[in-house]
Design brief:
The longest helix has 20 residues. It is built from 10 helices and 17 strands. By secondary structure, the chain is of the alpha/beta class. Helix content is 27%, strand content 18%. The strands form 5 sheets. Strands 12-10-13-14-15-17 form a 6-stranded mixed beta sheet, with helices on both faces. β14, α8 and β15 form a beta-alpha-beta unit.
Length: 404
Amino acid sequence: MKPTRVCQLSRIIKRSLILAAGIFFLWGVSVGHALDPDEILVIANSRMAGSTDLARYYMKNRNIPKERLVSVSVSANEVISREEYEKAVLIPVRNAVKKIRGEGRIHCLVLFYGMPLKIDQPFFPPNQREIRLSKKQPDGASSQKGSDSPHKAEEPKDQRAAVDSEIALVLVDSYPLDGWLENPYFLGFQNKKTLLQKDDVLMVSRLDGPDQKTVLRIINDTLAAEKTGLQGKGYFDARWPLPESKQLSGYALYDAAIHSAAKLASSRMPVRLDEKEALFGPGECDHAALYCGWYSLGRYIDSFTWSKGAIGYHIASAECTTLKDTSSQVWCLKMLEKGVVATIGPVYEPYVQGFPLPDIFFGHLVEGYMSLGECYLISLPYLSWQMVLIGDPLYQPFKPPSPR
């Protein structure tokens, strides 16, 4: 996980307040709008036992129209080639979205248990490696190189990606495959021109895990937590004290964002903020409802008893490399096994600036106006890249404050 160039935390936090002011618009409607069930397209894998049944169970409980289910036939392996992704996933999903868009509006895709997780790097023969695909951007469009964005960084030449992050661009016919693309919904990019437009991008999450039982529990626990409101404590594990400087970059920026997220979450629940380099120890965190911390690479620490409906987010470079290998200790897999209903992680190295900003994600989640999927989308800097959201995109664990 490598650091970004200089970023201004104060600029990003200031932009994140746009939503609370009612100026920021997500789907062309005001902040009071949250994702609706009829705006969702559900994607199941006909070659994975249980995928379609779980998808139908979810749709029934969320009142998603039956015709919003798309069944694809794709390998149940976690890693697929770019060619298989395009033929077996991209084309059928694109056709379904375009067909439904003639009758209504699709804003969100939900990938179900058994859908592949990762797109592998294409193989380039030695004599072709110097001429590999890297499409030019249109005149006047923002380039990642030399960008003046708060997340300014050198673009890594990498065509690997999370299936979820790639399928978010299902409506875009052509775009550069090398590296990442700036997410036009990210609050840090609202005052700049990006290659992608908001109409190009769909929200994506997945309901997935090591087995069918886990996915069923995620669905049921999510619904139960919404009825009562998420109960428990917040645990935020920074590594250093909050610096006085507002000119922050790389790890310092994200560590400060964990501090800020803890402060915002304290409006809803008791919060414990740790600012020492050591992580929470085993058994230290009872009734955990929200968690964000770092950095234990691919090694889950069993610190938590999770509340029903809990959300956990560990910032490290390998935490969603698998959701099926139960011998693995990656955080996303282990947190799902232990009881969370939602988590975020990368399938390959994302670089530190590729992670969602914790203060934007948790800050808007506890406000209660936006769903889990929407909070993820506005906190995520890049698409066609490595991050995955696991959880019900409709999940709203907190209700907005009552009007006074």
